[in-house]
């Protein structure tokens, strides 16, 4: 029987890769900052992604790019709530990309399906907010914290450090709610407090990160780890980003978080056909 991932109102079989589409309702995200800052443009982009075959929509109201400013909860809610309200019945799960427990609470009260926390639910109160819900939970490993992650790199084996963190946080979550395990996804946090070499090393060792048999999510889309290798600008990393997502799936990723939904969906269909040996 295929392992399932409970994501709020939705349940996914993990017999195929899941595509999460990124919508940043921000003026300053590294790739699409300002593109979907207005409510109407964010909603339009979401519906385009749905038509392109997205499985989950991941909506963020605060940038985590290097040098970005932290914003207040009230400002983050101002950006997020109208988009959530407009898309809550769009037919695909809504994920909210936030590390603030009060934002998580508002989102859960609006019946969002997933919380994607770059801090891995380490902030005070986060575990208590999410545990009683039925939301999917993405636990990301960030070396350092929001203020210093881009200048703070793991001293020991980054895979071992990730496993230690994931094991600790999963045990914390299970203490809050023993039934939570089928709602948890693990994200190695590529680009968050790791060197370029460490990022690619983690992809090469993804299966070792599958703590407690949890599914794995990888987000590489348009990141500097891509640009450093191919020497291309953020707007010219489509092929390399899709390639890295595809290879991540081959190395064990169950969910890929991407900007370019249609291209990723098509590439994964080809991978599936090859694996199944389809003869037409």
TrEMBL record:
Q: Which GO terms describe its biological process?
A: folic acid biosynthetic process; tetrahydrofolate biosynthetic process
**Can you name this protein?**
Dihydropteroate synthase
Pathway(s): Cofactor biosynthesis; tetrahydrofolate biosynthesis; 7,8-dihydrofolate from 2-amino-4-hydroxy-6-hydroxymethyl-7,8-dihydropteridine diphosphate and 4-aminobenzoate: step 1/2
Q: Which organism is it from?
A: Candidatus Kinetoplastidibacterium blastocrithidiae TCC012E
* Gene3D superfamilies from the UniProt entry: Dihydropteroate synthase-like
- Lineage, please? Bacteria, Pseudomonadati, Pseudomonadota, Betaproteobacteria, Candidatus Kinetoplastidibacterium
Its cellular-component GO annotations read: cytosol
Q: Which GO terms describe its molecular function?
A: dihydropteroate synthase activity; metal ion binding
Q: Say yes or no: keyword Cytoplasm present.
A: no
Which residue numbers delimit the Pterin-binding domain?
17-269
> Would I find Metal-binding among this entry's keywords?
yes
